[in-house]
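User: Run a structure prediction on this.
Assistant: Running it now.
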Amino acid sequence: MAGIYAAMAKKQKARRQHLADQPLSEISGVIYPGGLGGSGGGTSGTWNLSVTLNPWRVAGGQLKHTKINLAKDSLPQNDFQKLMDSMSSYQVIRVSARYSEFCPEWDTPQGDIDSVIENKFKDPELCRHAKELKRPFILMDPFFGKMTLVRTVNWLKCKRRSGWFSSYEVCVSRNGEDYDSSRAKDIVISLESRMSQVRKAVKESLYQTYSDEWKSLGPLSAEQFTQRIKLYSIAVDQDGSSSCWFRDGGLFLGHDVEVKIDQNGVIEGADIVG
């Protein structure tokens, strides 16, 4: 873990040094869904704002249909909160920033915000693209059928039957604009065929916890416990890991149950979440 933190610190240092040498430019763009966030607090007491734009442009330049990640670091909490409150997904903003399309050790353009010039910029072309981003994006997959893109998390979602009168949701994570349909298909088919093992993992991980600590529905046998949970989603991540999500049927007062499966298909156990 220490090695991971050290590598990230080195990467961030290289980014800051590279951007410090760039001139200030005026950048405008659409805040991409899910592209607004922050981190901080702790001992420093300051916060870091992050904004992802797509599409975007430098003043007077052509529109770029790639993501640029902008940051404004070391903000007092009040200033950070004001900026967060003034922005939202699909909003068109205009900022002064030092940026680079080829930042060392980063795969996407990066920039450091000097100031926010306008948080509701009326650029006709960018506003049109913001409206287009709000429209549902649907594709037809040879195996999954109709899939709808959830832009905020970059997942493709669809419904899949699990019986005559029941279905569950499949969520497949995209890597940029791509997703591995074949691998997702194999993972889903495998999990469907092994669902008894997945449900067994829930029983082995959580039945005793229910009996000792929750007892929301009174005493239940292990079989009654397992029958309460209902699969509602299988999520497939970019790295080939996956998870099965279950409604708890009242066992844990409405909390979901997640079963994690690693890249090799090994069931890692179940947890109460939410």
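The chain has a mean pLDDT of 92.
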